[in-house]
Write a structure and sequence with these properties.
This is PKHD-type hydroxylase. Its EC number is 1.14.11.-. Keywords: Oxidoreductase. The chain is of the alpha+beta class and about 200 residues long. The protein has one domain: q2cbj1_9rhob like domain (Jelly Rolls, Sandwich), CATH 2.60.120.620. The protein has two helices and 15 strands. Strands 1, 2, 4, 5, 6, 8, 12 and 15 form an eight-stranded antiparallel sheet that branches. A five-stranded antiparallel sheet has the order 3-7-13-10-11, with no helix packed on it. The chain has a two-stranded antiparallel ribbon with strand order 9-14. β10 and β11 form a beta hairpin. The protein binds 2-oxoglutaric acid and fe (ii) ion (FE2). The site of fe (ii) ion has 4 residues, from loops.
Amino acid sequence: MAINYSFGLPLKHNYSDYIYYRGLFLPHEIDKILNFWEEDKILKATLSGEDEYNDELRKSAVMFIDNVPENNWIYSKLASLAINCNNERYWFDLLGFHQELQLTRYSEGDFFDWHLDFGAGEISARKLSMTIQLSDADAYEGGDLQFMINNKIVNAPREKGTIIIFPSFVMHRVTPITKGTRQSIVGWVSGPPYR
Ligand SMILES: O=C(O)CCC(=O)C(=O)O
Ligand SMILES: [Fe+2]
């Protein structure tokens, strides 16, 4: 039986395991972001909070989008969207981006197995994760961003330009690319500890 033993706090019901948006970036803006790839800036992806490479959990190439004035248009659009999404759905305490936005490129055979973006150490302040699909959905096979929700696997939308936002404690993965290349931006909005 449902009971209502109130602690005197407002209760809001609008939680979603993930939510997606379209149209924030225009096609030419996405192309501009894709042109950021500079081969000499690419890092082999490491697991957050770990210095060691772990090829079993993740294989992809990453680069960071510097938080410099020329790139402010990307940061500010994503910040506004995160704030609006949070005000509508989550009501987490958010402070801002504490890590640079990450550009990720998955080539054939690359993947990122099941994980949370939240955990001990420097990733313990992460509250919301955001992914932006930068590649045409038919430019690659495999490479699905998936969530594990109540023991069911759910695919995130693939359309280019779609922005997917989810709490950083939701389990997700990117399945192996079997053909082509997938690119994404990944960002994390941080905040004070849960309370
Ligand atoms: O590429 C993506 O869409 C998600 C990657 C991811 O889960 C991560 O970098 O934590
Ligand atoms: Fe992740």
